[in-house]
Amino acid sequence: MLTEEENEFLTRVGAGTPMGDLFRRFWTPVMLASELPAADGPPVRADVLGEKLVAFRASDGRVGLLDAYCPHRRANLFWGRNEENGLRCVYHGWKFDVTGECTDLPNCPEGVTLKDRVQTRAYPTLERGGLIFAYLGPAAMKPEFPAIESFGSDPAGRHVTKIVARGNWLQFQEGDIDSSHVAFLHSGLGSRPLEGSRSTPYTFADKTPRWFIDETDYGLMFSAQRSAGPDRFHWRVNQYLMPYATLIAAIPGNPILAQIRVPVDDETSILFRYFAHPERALTEAERAMFDGGVTVPEMVPGTFSMVENAANDYNIDRDRQRTETFTGIRSIVAQDLAVSQDQGGGPRLDRSREYLVSSDRAIIALRKRLLAAAKALRAGVEPPEARKPKAYGVRPGDFTLPRDVAVAQGASEILIAAVR
Ligand code: FES
Ligand SMILES: [Fe+2]
Description:
Layout: H1 4-11, H2 18-23, E1 27-32, E2 44-45, E3 53-57, E4 63-67, E5 81-83, E6 86-88, E7 95-96, E8 102-104, H3 111-114, E9 122-123, E10 125-128, E11 131-135, E12 158-166, H4 169-177, H5 182-185, H6 202-205, E13 210-215, E14 219-227, E15 232-241, E16 245-248, E17 256-265, E18 268-276, H7 284-290, H8 318-323, H9 332-340, H10 361-378, E19 397-402, H11 407-410
Antiparallel strand pairs: 1-11, 2-3, 3-4, 4-9, 5-6, 6-7, 7-8, 10-11, 12-18, 13-14, 14-15, 15-16, 15-19, 16-17, 17-18
The structure holds FE2/S2 (inorganic) cluster and fe (ii) ion (FE2).
The site of fe (ii) ion has 5 residues, from loops.
């Protein structure tokens, strides 16, 4: 449980809010690179962290990310013309390059010289692993890009889906690190795994995992321990990489799922469901699994919305819920969304009205870590994670170990990424 004040503190994301400022110390994934496929192509809306932004790919291939509203009379640059290395506002023709410099101010005689003094807000961008990242913080604090293994993967080794849904980022993020819900929300009836589940059956058989939580240089390692016969324990290890990504427990050798949660604003979030095999191309069978259904939801073509959505009650099938699966909802993402998007009755959960128990230890640890980091930043202490890019080279895991072996020792090789 949090106080109302702490809840406000953790869930607001705009510039000048505590969490908003913390997010702005890291590289933020804003869109799929494929949304800007070609130089001089159409500009695209790219709102994140409570800011209205427009992205465009200039003639030289660089990606610009600008304040959506033109500094002249605040018309939306989304309507703009992407011309020779700049985006031109269609209202009176002012033009801006990827750095936000005004390069043409054609509607008044003084424009020839005035343009050198006009600037719009622009953020630096980077393209990695099929995503476009932006840095929205103070220039002097811009960090190195973190060594997250998935973003170094080959295009043939990854499958990325972008989903935009209503709901505050934190309740989604809390779901991603919470191994405890998997045995219920994502299970078949009779404690069976869902068809196509990527988790081992132990996850579904033992419904009361014990938590082992490690504070790390990149964030938090959440290990859920379950019984796996008389001599072994099963471990389901999720890695939380501050502040946006969780690497979800995966059987070693399988593609790794990074769930990346990015706030659009206080009440809307992007999920990048990012599957990547660090060492090889995806197989046909894996691709088929990622092509819409249980593991990856079916999308409305040409949108970032799911076919299963709040308006159709996520296509819940009450017959299947009686006879086959715990929820009767088909895709794992829709199962998560159904319970997370209106927790407590609105898009932003009021955490002063919860009843937490020992199985919620991971969620408590996550909140504590984020509160501490955001409070420290308020007091002038920069987040140390942003200065440790190499620490991010880790993997999640789903495996068993002899009962007397601690997860950190027994799995040290499994949990370290081959950083390139
Ligand atoms: S509002 Fe953009 S040029 Fe006038
Ligand atoms: Fe889930």
